[in-house]
Write a structure and sequence with these properties.
With 203 residues, this protein is an alpha+beta fold. The protein is globular, with a radius of gyration of 16 Å.
């Protein structure tokens, strides 16, 4: 089962994927666009905040041969669903890693935005982690290159939750830089800037 959770209280959306099977953790950021090559046995649940994107999400899932369940939830609060051995949290962020395709971001982005979103991410991450069973994997991803939204959020979480240990990600075949507990993709050759961290809960 895969579950996507959205926030009603913000203009941004969050994708939270919960799998009942161990799979390769993939960064996903585009609303309504599931991973292009998912394993055929996965059942994604997708719920973009924007209602008009529901149909696009359903069409993409149908094209990929997947079924979906739509759930809305504020992830600053605990989510009551069965625990899983894999969760991908693609948190709402400033999108600063996507300036190549969205240059208008630099016209509206403020230091306050970075502070507010990093605080929100820090509140969401523990609730995503609560869905992980012992031995399971949590992947945190944002399409931002600010240290406040990436390495600092994850490092603060690890410091407060010693039951989670950072792990190396599998090779991504794109340029990356080590940043704290995770990696930052280098925004070159059409690749956006992402921060990705993989954490395993101790058995």
């Amino acid at each position: 089962l895969q579950i996507t959770v959205t926030l009603r209280s913000l203009p941004s959306s969050v994708l939270l994927f919960v799998f009942s099977l161990s799979v390769f953790p993939l960064p996903v950021c585009s609303l309504g666009h599931p991973p292009p090559h998912p394993a055929p046995h996965l059942l994604p649940t997708v719920h973009p905040l924007e209602r008009q994107l529901h149909e696009a999400a359903r069409q993409n899932l149908q094209r990929l041969g997947l079924k979906a369940e739509f759930i809305t939830h504020d992830l600053t609060r605990p989510l009551d669903v069965p625990k899983s051995n894999f969760v991908l949290l693609d948190a709402p962020c400033t999108g600063s890693g996507t300036l190549r395709s969205h240059p208008e971001i630099k016209l509206r982005l403020t230091p306050q935005d970075v502070t507010e979103l990093s605080e929100l991410q820090g509140r969401m991450l523990p609730n995503a982690a609560d869905l992980i069973e012992p031995g399971g994997v949590l992947v945190y991803s944002v399409c931002s290159v600010t240290p406040q939204e990436g390495p600092e959020v994850v490092q603060n979480f690890v410091n407060a939750h010693p039951e989670f240990m950072p792990e190396e990600l599998p090779p991504l075949d794109i340029p990356v830089l080590r940043e704290g507990p995770g990696i930052m993709t280098v925004p070159l050759d059409g690749v956006d800037g992402f921060y990705i961290a993989r954490l395993r809960r101790k058995s």
